[in-house]
Amino acid sequence: MQIGIIGTGGVGGYFGGRLALAGFDVTFLSRGLNYESLRDNGLTVKSLLGDFKIDMVNVTRKIEDLKHADLIFICVKAWQVKEIAEKVSTVLSENAVVIPLQNGISAAEELAEHLGESRVIGGLCFIISKLECPGVINHFGVEPSIVFGERNNIKTERLEKIKMIFDSAGIKSKISEDINADLWKKFITICVSGLLAVTRTTYGELRELKQTRKMMTDLLKEISRLARKIGININPDFVNKTVALIDTYPYNSTSSLTRDVWEGKPSEIEYQNGMVVKLASRYNIETPVNKFVYNCILPMELKARRCKKHNE
């Protein structure tokens, strides 16, 4: 099986690296200095589970080089999915399957609009990792895992085949019973990232201070209420379990959105707290903490996007 990884950052670099290490035919799509380093020096992964290096990496800057891929993982930022979907649609082989691993709840739908429902499997991942420098991935928190499933929740043969691939690569994975609910559970949890950005705290600092811990809990409660209003299967004790999970995160860890905001880069805020605000307005739900977080970050986001456009 030929596997394509679109986006070789903390997520794509780690999981793609594991697949390549296991002997699968993996091609990474990358650009800039990261592409050059992968081409010249291979891929280095620093991980809590053990470091590894792949000396010879199949890497390309041309999406056309993925035309023979049977399985493609989309690992770019959420705001890049629509553009990538248009490009992938021109090269995707007839029986190829695409799995997005973005934060948020809209990536699979955006991909299906361009690629067709049958070609897209819902997916999400759990990992705290980053591109430390070109060609080097640092996994520094959370046991990496992937949850995936058909968007209609039907069990299919292709899900079992993909599960076997993950198992062979030593990647913890689960076939979802309700992929929409699982996406929302991850979505609710990751929206704390915006609060980290606004308060300029790590997970440890945020949770240890009484005032910010309450803000975090209230933020989670708001999105949980919204999810249930929409009809998502979220258990009443989900917020308590999520807070308990966040309490296990490494004290000094943050998230990719948090780091992007701090570094003045475009972020996924529109696909996280911004999405909460948008849906809350549609369903007439009050989400004051999420609205506060979104409105605080929005000016920085607009500035980051103007700078990015100016430099292109």
Q: Which CATH class of the largest domain is shown?
A: Alpha Beta
Radius of gyration: 19 Å
Summed up, the helix count is: 13
Shape, per Cα inertia axes: globular
Order of helices and strands: EHEHEEEEHEHEEHEHHHHHHHH
Total count of domains: 2
Mean pLDDT: 95
Count the E strands. Answer: 10
Low-confidence stretches: none
Judging by the overall fold, what is the CATH architecture of the largest domain? 3-Layer(aba) Sandwich
Helix percent reads: 40-55%
Strand order of the largest sheet: 5-2-1-6-7
Distance between the termini: 36 Å
Could you characterize what this model shows?
By secondary structure, this protein is an alpha/beta fold. It folds into two domains: 2-177, Rossmann fold; 183-311, N-(1-d-carboxylethyl)-l-norvaline Dehydrogenase, domain 2 (Orthogonal Bundle). It has helices spanning 10-21, 32-41, 81-88, 107-115, 157-168, 179-190, 192-199, 203-208, 210-230, 238-246, 256-262, 273-283, 288-311; strands at residues 2-6, 25-29, 43-47, 52-54, 58-60, 71-74, 97-100, 122-133, 136-149, 172-175. The strands form two sheets. It has a five-stranded parallel beta sheet. Strands 3, 4, 8, 9 and 10 form a five-stranded mixed beta sheet that branches. The longest helix is centred in the C-terminal third of the chain and has 24 residues, at 288-311. The mean pLDDT is 95.
